[in-house]
Design goal:
Radius of gyration: 18 Å
Strand content: 5-15%
Number of helices: 10
Shape: globular
Largest sheet: 7 strands, parallel
Number of domains: 1
Number of strands: 11
Distance between the termini: 55 Å
Length: 298
């Protein structure tokens, strides 16, 4: 006997304080999301050390109003997608699950790009099955494979889109030139590049996304916790605001651009709750001016 999906007023919950963004014009999400790479084992391989805690993280994320969850077929591989479905299916209305394809995983901590069209198609169909979806709302090319013509990779995604297997297409770890080329072939709605308060190499891509109305999804937004070790300026500013360095780093990202969609990952409910609390943090000009120094020293 099936279970009726929950109806959730997403904008009444704590994560809504991060603001909202419409991915592709039709997917309205609270801007603070959840990355699920860490809901796997060591080396992003196999099941998590504490599967019950991973399940609690996902359930608590929804309770707190996170309705944008980012995953990939390569996380585990397959493990992250399977846990999401086992925990949250049937999905509440308004929950957007984004996934990615473009890697082979020969072993722990090993990542090999694979953008062959047949691989991307098989990956999409595998994700659909694992996530128990008829359509993936946001399907992202995890990397552009230099061994395969980019037009072939994008063409494969275009075909999946025309078949109704994916709704929107996103890119990951790309330059402005690569985004512009991709947009001549298929509509692109989001870009996922590494970015944080201490790693602003993608500033130009953030600004491009803002001009073009594309969502920018910063992966590694807390540098796996390293922002708390990034120097006295961040620590001093956080102490003054009576918050953690990680909370300040997330608040800075949310302030940085209205198209910013941070997806901090964690394997513990305690850290999840700390991250979501950052959605309510307001930054003054003095704090922002102090954090600007980090960009010059990064």
């Amino acid at each position: 006997m099936g279970t009726t999906p929950a109806k959730i007023d997403w904008q009444s919950l704590p994560a809504a304080k991060s603001g909202q963004f419409r991915i592709g014009g039709d997917l309205s999400v609270n801007r603070l999301g959840l990355g699920t790479m860490r809901l796997t084992g060591k080396g992003i391989w196999g099941p998590p050390k504490d599967q019950n805690e991973a399940i609690r993280v996902l359930r608590r994320a929804v309770e707190l109003g996170i309705n944008f969850i980012d995953t990939a077929d390569s996380y585990g591989p397959a493990v992250s997608e399977e846990i999401i479905a086992e925990t949250l299916y049937p999905y509440p209305a308004g929950l957007v699950i984004a996934t990615k394809a473009g890697f082979d995983r020969p072993g722990p901590d090993k990542w090999v790009t694979n953008g062959r069209p047949e691989h991307l198609r098989a990956a999409c169909e595998g994700s659909l099955k694992r996530l128990r979806l008829n359509r993936i709302e946001l399907f992202q090319l995890h990397r552009i494979d230099p061994k395969v013509p980019s037009d072939d990779q994008l063409g494969a995604l275009q075909n999946l889109q025309s078949e109704g297997k994916i709704n929107h297409i996103g890119l990951s770890e790309v330059t402005i030139k690569e985004i512009e080329h991709a947009r001549t072939i298929v509509p692109i709605v989001s870009v996922q590049n590494r970015y944080s308060v201490v790693d602003r190499a993608a500033d130009d891509v953030v600004e491009y996304c803002e001009r073009a109305g594309l969502g920018f999804i910063p992966w590694f937004p807390l540098a796996a916790g390293d922002v708390s070790k990034s120097g006295s300026e961040l620590e001093r500013a956080a102490a003054k605001l009576k918050i953690t360095s990680s909370q300040l780093a997330l608040a800075w990202l949310l302030h940085r651009s209205p198209v910013m969609l941070p997806i901090p990952g964690t394997s513990r409910v305690e850290h999840l709750e700390e991250n979501v609390a950052a959605a309510a943090v307001k930054l003054d000009e003095a704090t922002l001016k102090g954090l600007a120094k980090l960009a010059r020293s990064a």
